[in-house]
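Following up on my earlier message about 1,3-dihydroxyacetonephosphate. Here are the inputs again, as you asked, copied directly from the submission form:
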Amino acid sequence: MNIDELKSVARAIVAEQKGILAADESNPTIKKRFDAIKLASSEESRRRYRELLFTTEGVERYLGGVILYDETLRQSTADGIPFAALLSSRGIIPGIKVDQGTKTLALHPGEKITEGLDGLRERLAEYKQLGAKFAKWRAVIEIDDRDIPSAYGIHANVHGLARYAALCQEAGIVPIVEPEVLMDDAHDIERCEEVTSQVLAQLFTELDAHHVLFEGMLLKPNMVIAGMKCAQQAGVRQVAEATMRCLRRYVPAAVPGIVFLSGGQSAQDATDHLNEMNKSGPHPWQVSFSYGRALQAPVLAAWQGQENHVEQAQKAFFARCRLNGLARTGTYDRAMEKEAVD
Ligand code: 13P
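Thanks, got it. Here's what our run produced:
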């Protein structure tokens, strides 16, 4: 493993104003997104959509990396330029989702475990050949009233993350370590902070036990936020304060960057929360984004699968990237939302 290269790739992804576009939806997930705009999901429609995103002018100022799905890493523009080469030529680092989704954790109803460790060493070697310089693995932690997550559920998931991260670094690939505490349920923000704290504390113990170099990885956590079904939603400042308090307690300063997932927040909320956290900086690590839905929802809404809407969709994508770039320095304001779409 080339330590200097791992460090420099990790730092480049979260360079000033920059974050990540998560465009690594699996085929079943992108089908759901396309269903919402009544577009059939085929290899070609998925390719056209990803080409729209990756060829948007100006986004290289705000994107340090893009996470791709296996199929997408093997695809090219209509002119035959492989997507990985296109992104690299624009100064955007290509990455790859390497987990193979979640299944029920055996004998632990209501809890999930991420699959994909078998054969991962060999897959990483191939992905490296195809141009990927970083990877992503998502573990999912659900919350219920009392018993979930169980101690074993957390342990099994952080163990999987650590094994994945060690294999990535061995292969010279920067691991993005994603322990997502879901925001789908009815828990309040305090419960989210409690569970996120437990998960992060155990995660870094496990990463350390696996000899993972903290300087050569990125953390992709959830924000500390109330569940969507909770009657008591927290304000922007409360989310920012609770999230930074939690991360400062449990994430070593050696980690170069935190790249949040959006997890079902609206595009504006995700930007606003990120902005508020950066306003209260400086922090020990770069505080950035790795958004899927919060970057793409406005793009899909504008595009609708129509060739004559591509320009409008690219405008919406550029606007979202720029606003999140501003949130990286705490200089975003909700009033900018209007001018961004005009
Ligand atoms: P969301 O921002 O839509 O949560 O997606 C980010 C991601 O990559 C989840 O694994």
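One observation from looking it over: The pocket of 1,3-dihydroxyacetonephosphate is lined by residues 22, 138, 178, 261-263, 291-294 (CB under 6 Å). Hope that helps, and feel free to reply on this thread.
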